[in-house]
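Blackboard transcription, Thursday session:
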Amino acid sequence: MTKHRFAVIALALLSPGGVAQAHAETAPAPREIMEKVTLTRKLDGSEAVVKMTVMDDKKQARERDITMATKLYDGGKTEKRIYRFLSPADVQGTSVLVFDYESKADDVWIFLPALRKTRRIVSSQKTQSFMGSEFSYGDLNIPAIDDFDYKLMNQEPFGGEACYVIEVTPKSKEIAESEGYSKKTYWVSKDKFAVMRGLFYDKDGKLLKELVTGNIKLLDAKNKRYRPMHMEMINKQNGRKSVFDSSKVTFAPNTKDEYFTTAYLERS
Amino acid sequence: MTTDGGVVPVEPPDAPSDGGGGLFEQSQAASAAPAAGETGLASKLPFTLNGYVRGDVFVGKVQDQNAAEMKANYGEMSLQLRTVKSAYGDGFADARIRYGLQGAAQGTFIDLREAYVNTYLGPFDLRLGKQIIVWGRADALNPTNNLTPVDFRIRSPLEDDIRLGNVGARAFLRLSPVRLEGVWLPTYLPTELPPVGLPPLVSFAPPRFPSADLRNGLVAGRAHLELASFEMSVSYLRGYAPLPGLTLSDLRFSVTDPAVFVSRTAYDQQVIGLDFSTALGEVATIRGEAAYRRPFDYQNRPWAARPDLQYALGADHNFGSFNVIAQYLGRYVFDWQKEPGTNRSNSDLEGILRDPTREMDFRDSVTEAVNDELAQVNQILFSQTAQVQHIATLRFEWLLAHDTLSLSSLCLLNFTTQEWLVTPRIGWRASDTMTAYIGAQVFAGPNDTLFGLIDQTLSAGYAELRFTY
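(Written on the board underneath:)
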């Protein structure tokens, strides 16, 4: 190797892109990292009590207490979830049942106590706010891996964890419209494959929201499944913030199948 | 990491639970019990109390005048008691106490709206007590919903508030994906109509409702098929229709105080129904419902509706935070004929009734005239003034300001009879406990239609403040 060629290689390695390139050679492919993130989110079954706090730009807070259960079916390809609002009184008893499929549109039902019946609704509104919070329905769903392109941007620590920094972009304009984001950037824990931080960009490419998670709990030690007990979503454009705090979570692979039926929804 | 820069320590792994956990059900039971650590009387009570306090005012038009009047104004308290959930069931009661003006009546109204116990025994659920039952997957108008009645005299921004509970049993047997439902309502409770002005000389006599004989109870069954992508049900009902017709009870020939007495009279029927809903990908939800109603011996009971077939098909879609439900409804009346009413004028009939000496000769002809008029009124009451009717409804809701502001309305148009209804409403959730509503309920239609009969009585603008606890 000539001195000249050695110098070129040394300079390449020392440049930021070069360092990243060197590290990237040892990191898994970014798509593979996000596939592991998706897998980590999937618990065979779980039950939880969650407090959702919605804060406006004046720091006035509204709280919702929600109980929920989840279970995997079809070899992990389908996740069924039920949410029931416990408080405040004007939403108590409102329940939502979701069948989240990997490869087709979700089936969703809602039971409203004032209607006294269960109503099927379409699942298309991923951009729509969940109960007035800064989390959209899309933020809470497991995304379709094939809809996005992935790029490893960097590796840096966040939240006390060494992380991969992955940029996620929709593959088409239609997917971007459906998601409501032109781009997302995730800090993914190398050890746990849990999302520690997320940045979400609007259709004009401006930073819209920041997600920060904490208190990552190992719920299924055998399969190394983690779940954050604390999630904050801050809207950088309007100053509003929403927080999900899971006060109690159990790994419950044998959670009852009857919870995930429209019959149970109506049992208020 | 929290946004203030602190690092949240990661907890050591938990030992996983093998069983069903029970947290999901326990948390629902816990929400109906005093909070952990709470001391004093609240911690000893096996139930929780929720409800609301509200103040409402409804203002409309004076009948046949160009002036405004109060249609309703009241203060109301609702007490909703939920017992703690036990392994075998729980209980619920909803009592309402209202003081104010309701139609022509001013006073205190106490209503134990619902009071029932649920019991859960494996695949079998039973609810016993006073309860409101609503059937049908269509929006706004449900042809299969013929169980518990409504009270149109109750004025409220919320549609559910006019529903009335009735005492009975409702049971489910879950054989997934099929669910069987049975209902038994042993005693009759009628739908109440608003105080529509009666013609001169006409008064209400005591109603003719079925006795508490077990044979007079309503029985109904429904079989649900609930799949992931599609659900439907078929139903059968046999019992007295919630909305009674009118019959002539008596005539009084008197110089000073002539009168025609009419009675609200119930009739029994059979109803076969069907409904379904499914999703069209991510585009829309489709819902349909149909019912064939056949009153018993309707040919000899002019106070009964004619057999009819009602059907509805609709779709709903979200445009962001704007939700729209559009629906078509149709009605076909079997054995239909137009009821023309009587060709004798009110003054003619009054003249005869004011002359007791003419009773023997004219009683039959007056009776026939009144019955002809009642046949026409009954046809209006049962919304059967045309053999075939085409109706469209459009309901929308637009959520703004992070779901704290709601703009909504239900619009209905009957293309055949030219009746229409619109109910615009603005709702503002000032906080989790305080909500304000302003809106209107406007009915309109030709004089020989139901909406034409009630439009001046029921059409009103309103305002409500509600505190929920």
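Lecturer's comment: Chain B touches chain A through 73 residues (CB under 8 Å).
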